[in-house]
Structure formats: structure tokens, C-alpha cells
Amino acid sequence: MRQNQHLYRCWFCAILFVVTFLHTVFSAAHGYNRQPHGEGFLPDDVQKHYCYSTPRLKSSKENPLWKFFQAHKNGPGIHKWLQYFDIYHRYFSKFVGQEVHMLEIGVQSGGSLDLWRHYFGDKLYLYGVDINPYAKALFDNPPHTRIFTGDQQNRSFWAEFKSQVPRIDIVLDDGGHAAQQQIASFEELYHFVSEHGVYMVEDVPPGSGSFLEYAREHAAELFGHFADNEPGQFSATEPGLFTKTTMGIAFYDMQVVYEKGRHARPHLPVRKGKFWLPYNADKKYSSADGGVDAEHLQNFQEALVRSRSSD
To answer: Which of 110, 155, 258, 301 pairs with 49 at a CA distance of 20 to 30 A?
Structure first.
């Protein structure tokens, strides 16, 4: 019975989020602002009763971002999906307490600016971009918080933006959410992000022409050092800049995360130990029926015992 109740709660929570998402899309398409609920679209009691009982949607109690959000009752609004908080903490925690330059595309009501300032500390330099001029008028507070008014799909805007900031360590794209906007921003900003930075795109739907489809092509580029269909063989051609500067790409529910880093051509494989079992493709060690040969097994067992010796 308890399993059925948990299942019903999961379905109910999922339906609520689908309705919320459709409402968000409709509102954005018609120029409406997000609903001014202090706790987000779902009332606090509904979140607690239905969503927090679902492990997949529950954010860690030890996550300072989640704790700040839970305590945020007044002031500018913060609108996030529940699953985002632990992903933020996973990739952003390495920057806490040190000088970090973060760009958030999509300032909206400004609450997330407080969230990031609380999380990263006094050494944060925060840059926000929003197409709404009121965002700059309300939240611009140099030198540690600078707001820029512009269209994220406008490549000339990004050229001007990059000329005015010293560096970017983190990009969080929570802007217009249209694929062409996300792609234009990525192409103009990715190589501007610092060597060990993070580029995160959220509210990424599936489908043809989506940013998700675009990012899948990047996943293949991570293997640019190697030749096609030749395991362990290096490519004869030099990999591109993306391959050399990207350590990994992670795909989450509605999010894509790029981790930058120096991705040089790999060195030779490394090995440790003394006992090596021949690969299964070497049939000379198999019995007539393809199974274990008793004599070879005994030899392998003896070799394995000898390999454990410190001599």
C-alpha cells in the first residue's frame, strides 16, 4: 500500500511540474512575468508533501544553495527546478571562497543574484545579462555585480560584453531558452570561459534542432584525439580547439554541463601488476568446446599465486 502511495505521489508531482512548465512557456510566449509566489510555482506544503518524498527530485539537505532557497521568504524572486540545486553544487563548489567571475544569462526578478552571492562569498564577481532594461536599473551594483542589457542571440552584443569583463569562470545560461539563443551564446562565450571553468545550459528540451541535439555533436568531439573505429589508435589529424579545452560533458534532466580543462593528447596506457590473463580472443588457451582448459587453468592459477609475491 505504501508503495502505491509513493507511486501516486510521484505521478502527481510529475503532472504538477508538466503543468508548471507549460504555464511557464505560455507566459514567456505572451510576455507575462513569472508568478510572484515566494516559494516558486508549487506552494511550500505541496512541495513538501509530494515532491520531497520523491528521491529523484529531492535536493540534499547539506547543499547550501538549497538551504538558502528554503529560507528565502522575502525579497526578489528565485525560480528554479528542484533538480538543479544539487547539480549547481556539484560543479560550482570548487569555486567557493576564491575569486570567481560568474555570468548568469537571465536575471529576471534578481533573486538568484542573492543566491550566488551567498554561496560563493565576497570574492564573487557577478555579471548578469537580461533583455529587460529594468534588470539593470534595479540590480546593477558595481564593481562586484554588473548587469548588462542585451539580447543573448545578438553576437555583436557578446563582443561588446567580452570587451568589458576581465574573464568568466562560470556561465549559467538561464535566458530565453530557445535553441538559437542558447547556441549563439555558447558559440560566442565558450572559448572565453577560463581554462578550468564551467558552462551550464539549463531548461534544455529534447527534439530536432534543440541545444540537446547540438550538444550531442560536442560529445563526439571529446574523442577527437582518436581515430574512427580504431580502438586505442590516435587520429592522424590534429583535434580542434574544443577537444583540447574540454574535459567532459554531462547531460542531466533539462541541463547540459561542460567542464573545461586542458585535454592534451593522451599518453601511453599505464599498467601495474604481474599477472596478465590472455585476452579471450586468443583461442589457444581454450578447450575444444571453447571453455576452460584444465591444464591452462592450473598454469594460470600458479602464475597468479606467484604474482602476489613481493619478489
So the answer is: 110
Claim: this prediction has a pTM higher than 0.70: yes
**111 phi and psi, to 5 degrees?**
-65, -35
CATH architecture of 71-260: 3-Layer(aba) Sandwich (3.40)
Per-residue pLDDT tens over the stretch 98-147: 999 999 999 999 999 999 999 999 999 999 999 999 999 999 998 899 99
Per-domain boundaries in the chain: 1-58, 71-260, 273-311
Rg of the chain over CA atoms, in angstroms?
Answer: 25
Query: What DSSP element (H or E) covers 7?
Result: helix 2-29
Other beta carbons less than 10 A from residue 33's beta carbon = 11
Do residues 131 and 137 make contact, with C-beta atoms less than 8 angstroms apart?
Answer: no
